[in-house]
Structure formats: structure tokens, C-alpha cells
Amino acid sequence: MKRQRPALLAILAAAALGLGAPAARAQPLDQMSVLATDLKPQPYPPFTAVKLSDDLWQIPGSGSNSNVMVLVTDEGLILVDVKYDYQYDDLIKVIREKVSTKPIKFVIDTHYHADHSGANVRFLKDGVQVISSIPGREDILAKKQPGAPVGMAPANVTFTGEMRLYLGGKEVRIRHYGPGHTNSDVVVYFPQDRVICVGDLAHIGDLERGGQYPLIDYIAGGSIGGWIERLNSILADYKFDRVMSGHGTLGTPADIVAYRDILERVRTDVRAFLADGTKTQADLRTHLNKGPLHWPDPGFAMVRGLHGLYADLKP
Amino acid sequence: MHNFRIGVVKTLAAAVAMAALGFGTAAHAQQGQAMDFAKLQIKTTKLADNLYVMEAAPGVGNVMMLTGADGVLLIDSMFPQLHDKLMAAIRATGATGPVKYVINTHLHGDHTAGNGLFAKDGTVIIAQDSVRRRMLLPKSELTPAYPPENVPTVTYNDRMTLHFDGEDIELIHPPAAHTDGDTIVYFKKANVMHVGDLPASFRFNNIGVNDGGSVDGMIADGKLVMKLANSQTKIVPGHLGPVVGFKEITIQDTMFQTVRDRIAKMIKQGKTLEQIVAAEPTKDFNEGRLGGNITPARWIGLIYTDLTRRMKK
Ligand SMILES: [Zn+2]
Ligand SMILES: [Zn+2]
Ligand SMILES: [Zn+2]
Predict the structure, then answer these.
(1) pTM
(2) Phi/psi at B286 (nearest 5 deg)?
(3) How many CB atoms lie within 10 A of CB B134?
(4) Looking at A61-70, A223-232, B243-252, B275-284, which range is the least confident one?
(5) How far is B133 from chain A (nearest CA, A)?
(6) What is the CATH code of the structural domain delimited by A19-313?
(7) Which site among A107, A230, B75, B212 is 20 to 30 Å from B38 CA-CA?
(8) Is the dihedral of CA A30, A34, A35, A39 positive or negative?
(9) Which residues span the domain enclosing B191?
(10) Does residue B269 form part of some domain?
(11) DSSP SS3 for A248
């Protein structure tokens, strides 16, 4: 859940109107009305498949849905993220036509948001093992995402720390570090290709259209400090040449550094603004929009992150 | 005389190495030399609506089975020579689904040798990281070779949970005890726990002193099991089941501590392994514990190896 389209702005504005009153304490904005519309089925450009190496294919995000990575092995396929439920048929079609006809053995959810995990329910019906962090399951069961499609299904395999899959001579490492974009984010590493998938822990490319406004999902345990730590850990713990973020284009380790710096800038700026202890949440909202960060208002970063940032960073 | 003594020491050292290898339980039987598999029958015990224990012999790891709409989940896999009998026992309960998972409690052959025949049919084999790492190590004087088809293909390092057949199945990796890749499997809803070869049933447990295990780890994890479980939990031991409780674990724990302390004291007094074996430090515990595959002499050897290695460090 990263992008926002201009068509939504009117709805977002209307939803935000009732929320102008300054609050002494951190208050979540009314997200249900803001986000429900975005998660309903919408038209999307046809899926394509991009070959990264002999065994890795990207099914790029198309509209608001996530990037998907497909690992091809002799014994079957492993998918990282699966887009929305209503896009399942098209996802399968592009994989079958362009990538491989081998059976899909594992699906890995990078986090609980519906644009990444929505189609779990279909893969589970096919008997595929769906893997997420423990919060990745709990957040779906607790319906933490406002307006998420009904009938979402969580992973049937969860873990803490690290899991490794060995299929057809290939290895995949799945790691859950802790809170960041949400509390459920996992990174998926393909050591033989030196490729890492970081889900929405980064947004590479297309920065003007949303990547510079990080969506910190405080409602589901996200944290700006945790997020910065996550990216530092990824840089320290993995040898990778290419990285796929949940949305946007493929990148390199330099893009992870750049995104970490965006988050650092947000934290430094918000901390400095709140430092004298007199500011309200409404003051911060104005500052985020009119100050050096230029967060759109309304916008997803504002709607999901404002109250949490305020509570988290006020002195 | 001197030469004779060296000979005895060498023989004992070899015996210790063999015991550490799990000869008689794991490596030996893995090649099918120690057990007459044709004679073995599988005994099935029902623990809950959809949960069973399957036992074949003291030297064969106890298998647990969960069955339901999603299929069959097994803990440990016996030996390939018992595969058909195990499958027949599974089907005899009325379970019709495919065997989707085998979870290994640890790497020893008496628990994993049957993996390959399941994996061939598409079963996912799950274990803690160290199980895979150690099974892939080259065969050495102290560790046997593990056939590649038995190596787990899904591993975890800390905890993992499966949601399967309406049950929540927790895989818990405790601090190193029997090996450094042990898994405790807890069926939360049924309140049943398979503890692999951690202290549970009355026997002299093998201690995987060449697989990262230790007597102190065994003592600590026996206590840990009683924290993770509750007094109502049905605890399935790796051997000699089908079910024990806190009472048996507490008694085993006392036995482990008492014998460890006796052996440690004799080592400090400068006693040799054969002198310690001759002193029979397990004597008052032998009754009721000779049904397993590890004799008191072997068990003393394992503890001696573990303690003397630690003292050297
Ligand atoms: Zn997201
Ligand atoms: Zn055993
Ligand atoms: Zn064992």
C-alpha cells in the first residue's frame, strides 16, 4: 500500500475534512473512509514478466498492486508476494505463459497489506504453503488494514527469526527483523542470485509519486526508528547486487541507503519540530505538509503515520 | 600390564565414540544391521480426536501423526525399512490425506532415516537449521553419513508455527541439549507435546555429545519442557512411550543431575573411565531404565566424554 492516484484525492480530501480539530493526544485519522475505496477492485494494466536471471522473474506492480518475484526451480516455484485476490487469475496466467508451468510450492508474504497478500486465499486453496511472520498472520486475522477486502486469508506457516527453503537445489532465506513499515515485514534473499526482496521497507524509483512519503503503519506496529534499523540491518547482513521493493523499479544497495536517508530526514525534521514540547498533532500535520517534507495532505503517509509519528517522537 | 591398560582404554574410547554416534540406535540401525525390521510391528495409540503415536521398538523414534482435512502431518519418520508398515498404520486410523509434512525432532537416524521415502512423494521435511547443517557435514570418525534424500528442505532457527488440520502446531527450538538442533513440537489445542530425545521416559537417554548436545543441556531442557507444557499436557517421548508427564520428567531430571555429579566428582579425583564405569554410578537408577538402547556403561561414557571435554576447555 504505497501509491496514491490523483483520482482519489477528492475522496481523501472529503474524508479528511472532519478531522481538522487539533488534538492534544495522538489520534488516528479516520482511515476506514479514506482507504476502503482504494482497496476495491480497480482496472489495472496487463501483467508482464521481466527476467532477472536464469531463475528469477519479476512480475512488476501494475497500478496499486505489488511487485511479485518468482523463483524457478526444477522442483517448482516460489513466489514473493501475490497481489490482490481479484488479480489471481491474471497472475497465474502471466506466470504460466511467460515464466514456467512448474507447480507453485511456496508463497512468501513480505507483510500483511492486501496489495501483497490479498491472493493468499487462492493459493491456500491450491494447497500451496503460504509463509509470513507471526504478526503477518495476526494482523490479517485482526483486520488491521482499514478497508481490506473481506475473506482475506493469513499464511498457514509462520516463524520468528529466520526460515530457509531449499527447493530444486536453490536456497531462499526469509528473515523477520521487527517493526518497520509494519510490524510484519520480512525480507527474502536469494543467495545464488545476490537478489533481495524488501517489500515495502523501501520504495525504489518513482520517488516523486510517493516513495519519498514513507507510509509508517503505526496501527499495525510500524515504527520510524525500527524502519531505519531494518534498512541498516539489511545493508549489514546481506551481500546483494539487486533489490526489489514492494512497488517501483528494481534497484541496488545505493537505493536502500537513499531510502534510509529519506527516513532519517523525516525523523530528524519531526523531532526538531516537536522538540519544544508545545506542538499539537494538528501542528505537526500542518508542518509535515507545509514544511520541508511536503507530505501531501490528504495522503497515505499522513493518514497512516501522523498520529504514530506524533506519539513516537514528541518529547 | 601397561600395554594391556592402553588396550582397555582404546577399547573404551571406541565404545564411547560408538555410543556417541548413537550406534545401536541411529547410525548402526540406519544401515539396518542392528534391528530385524521384518519382525517389528507398529503399535498405534490414540491421544486425541486426530492425534496418534506410533511406536515400533525402543530403538526406533516414536512417530506422532496429526490427521484432518488438510492431510497428514508426522513427527519423525522411523526407518525406510518400516515405511510400508508406518503408512499402513497411518491408513489404519482412517487417515486418507497425503502426508504433507514431516517434522524432525533432531538429526539422528532413528528419527530421520525414513524422511527420503516421504520426500520422494512430495512431503515437506522440516527441522531446525542445525539438523540440515550437521546432516550435510562430511562423514567423520565421530559422525555418520546421512543420505542426502533425508536432509530437511525447510528449516527455521528459532520458532515456527504451522496452522494445519485446525490445529496450531508450534515448533520450539530449545537451547542445545540432546543435540544443538532439537525441536519440541507442541500441539496447542490438543495440549500434546512431542519432546524428541529430551529427558522424558525412563531410560538412559542418548546424549549427542558430537552433535552439540550435553548433559547440562539435557538437565536444563527437561526443566524447560515443564515450563512450556502444563501438568495436563500429554508428553510424548522420543522412545518408550506412548505418553509421560511431569512426574517422569522430574524423576529423570533428578537422575541426570545425581549421576552427572557423581561422575564429575570421580573425574576430579583422577579416576579413569573404566574405573568410573566399574564404580557403577547409575546402579540405584538401573531398575526400570534398562529397556532403552543405551546401556549404563555407554551412558556413563557419554557423560564422561562431555564433562572431560568441557574441563579441558
Ligand atoms: Zn505495505
Ligand atoms: Zn532417538
Ligand atoms: Zn537422538
Answers:
(1) 0.89
(2) -60, -35
(3) 21
(4) A61-70
(5) 12
(6) 3.60.15.10
(7) B75
(8) positive
(9) 40-256
(10) no
(11) strand
